[in-house]
Amino acid sequence: MIRFKAGLARMIGRLSRLTGRGGGTTLPGRVLLKLDPGAISKLGSELEHGSTLISATNGKTTTAAMLASILTANGRHPVHNRAGSNMTWGVATALLEQRGDEGLFEVDEAWLPETAARLGPRAILLGNLFRDQLDRYGETEALADAWVKLAKSRAGSTDFILNADDPLVADIGRYSGNRTTYFGIEDEDAALSETQHAHDAKQCRVCGQPLDFERAFVGHLGHYSCPSCGMKRPTPEVFATEIELKGMSGVEATVASPEGSARLKLPLPGLYNLYNALGAIATARALGVPVAASVSALAGMQAVFGRVERIHVEETELSILLIKNPAGASEVIHTLALEPGKLDLWIALNDGIADGRDVSWIWDADFEVLAGHVNSIICTGTRGTEMALRLKYGGWDTDRITVVDGIGKGLSEAIGRKPGKLFAMPTYTALLELRKLLAKQGEAERYWEG
Amino acid sequence: MKLRLLSLYPDQMNIYADRGNIIFFEQRCRWRGIDFEVTRCGTGDTFDPAGFDLIYMGGGQDRDQQIVASDLVETKRESLVRAKEDGAVVLAVCGGYQLLGISYQLADDVIEGLGLVDLKTVREPGPRLIGPVVITVNLDGTDRTIAGFENHGGRTYLGPEAKPFGKVESGHGNNGNDGFEGVREDNLVGTYLHGPLLPKNSWLADHLIKLALEHHHGGTIELDPLDDRFEDAAHETARRVALAG
User: Fold this and answer.
1) Where along chain A do its domains lie?
2) What CATH number is associated with residue B227?
3) Would the pLDDT of A447 be above 50?
4) Taking the domain A50-76+102-298, which CATH number applies?
5) CA distance A363 to chain B (A)
6) DSSP notation for B196-235
7) With an 8 Å Cβ cutoff, is B195 touching chain A?
8) In whole angstroms, what is the distance from residue A185 CA to residue A180 CA?
9) pLDDT for residue A43
């Protein structure tokens, strides 16, 4: 019966694409789950080598793409929801439409427990928990509690790969059983000079008292301990030392493990992408790929759409950097601050349901860092006016800021100024609009994957 | 001139980017040549009630709010009562607003509040009250529109002694039932319009700055006007979004 329903759902996906209704990244899955709510379990159980799930507030899509590159380079055939559709129907669509012998799924933080219950995964990678769209997800502590429940239910039967540097994530290791490994950063020189503002893990998860941070690398990711109960950051098996940040062009580091170390040359910028890479490498190791093999696979990694992608539009090199919450946006800002010269920016702030209707979060991102480092800024999107206001109060020169109604008009205006480089910072639904616009102009068709 | 702001629990009570309100106060003072001083006051700290003109407290996660509630009552209640009686301006947002009242309920526990104003926050069946909101307030003899965003599980009911901050035009307000939003008593304002409420409502920020300066320096103070084109545009968008539902 599942074969028939799956065939029907696949056909609907093809029809949707033929009739020009878009990527069809979720429709077949939605149809299938309507026909058979148990479809994910059934299709998932047909994957010979089981499934790996990846979740985090920031970096899911990139980390999953990294792990997919590693697995593919090592002759494996993952079924992967690469279009970033990470609710149950996105997973179902990938299961329907791709052939392979193991699953590799990025999963929305809130959907993770349900997806894991259905798939009974072989491995789960948990990257980080930052404050996100509070109107959608609720508080980060509540999400951490839900993940703890999941860890208890899968302890001993699933490999858990946890970020040692995130106290909210590392704490899950107390419950996730003996198949747990950690990754992290061990390079003291890479620490932030000041504590960032979006500090989302202040209390010890064991005793509730304030944590001591010896150093932080990205937001609250760092080296911490609890002076009250003695809780300590776990020692990671896979870790980075000797880190060199190369601006927007990438980051290099030595990645060490019990089996030896290798020099990673990652063509994606920033410590946040290094964390994504460490998570992917540690997970690949749990899946049987040696660290050295992962490191060389990542050197050839291409950016995923909207996660630091560079595209040529007319005479302009357009870099697209998704922003969606304070921690992620601050990382983008800190990375841009390493660029030479004064920057031309296009920032699109939408308040759609997928973005979070509440745009308060922009006030928690470190826009101050780029004041004095910008040439011209177009603010657009449904809440472009509030974005412009945020920049003004971040100390940016208001004469350089223009608010343009409508994402298409905003983009034409920014490109029309013919900057050599333009950095686009869209929120999630603004990124989707941007993708459509660029696809129409034939600039981004290669990303239009089903 | 000088404005002395006390920021209560800036680490715990900052979940919805409450930092935006402090930045907003600071820049608007700076652009007018008013000295602006922020003092952070966290768990276990005490403060001098005569030392501050404006006291700000934002919202926190449930767990943080519980820690803060007992600390407030133990180490800060007396100073807060005194500061309020002396006419210092108090702005409490979201979780901070709930803690101003007599009690607030978290799951099955009823937690003692500051008792600064006559209100109680309870839990009722039904979803969290989330969404854009517009209210009408009248603080200076003129009706003004305030736009923002609310996100709260608790339902707040004002006692007979308390007056609301505003009337709900669109959104839920204190409890989704009685059409009131927030609380106001002399120079104290409590509201569910969370996080960076002031950037969307520069008029309210200036009104509170004026009251705080008058508290510090006495007499009537008129603030220099600023170029508020960006502020007015952001307010207009927030208002339109809320009225559209």
Assistant:
1) 50-76+102-298, 307-447
2) 3.40.50.880
3) no
4) 3.40.1190.10
5) 5
6) STGGG-HHHHHHHHHHHHHHHH-S---PPP---HHHHHHH
7) yes
8) 17
9) 84
How much is the average pLDDT of B93-113? 92
Q: How many domains does chain B have?
A: 1
Q: In B72-170, which ranges are continuous DSSP H helix?
A: 77-85, 95-100
Say what the ipTM of the complex is.
0.96
pLDDT value at position A444?
A: 52
Residue of B nearest to A326 (CA): B17
The whole-number pLDDT of residue A450 equals 28
Count contacts between A and B (CB, < 8 Å).
92
The residue range of the domain holding B130 is 2-243
Interface membership of A383 toward B (CB under 8 Å): yes
Asked if B53 reaches chain A (Cβ–Cβ under 8 Å), the answer is: no
Cα gap A88→A110, rounded to integer Å = 11
Bridge partners of residue A402, in order along the sequence: A378
Partner-chain residue, chosen from B14, B16, B234, that has the shortest CB–CB distance to A385 = B234
Mean pLDDT, chain A, as a whole number? Answer: 88
CATH fold group of domain A307-447: Protein-Tyrosine Phosphatase; Chain A (3.90.190)
Q: Write the pLDDT tens digit of every residue in A25-59.
A: 677 777 777 777 788 888 888 899 999 999 999 99
Q: How far is CA A75 from CA A41, A50, A68, A100, B19, in A?
A: 25, 16, 11, 11, 50
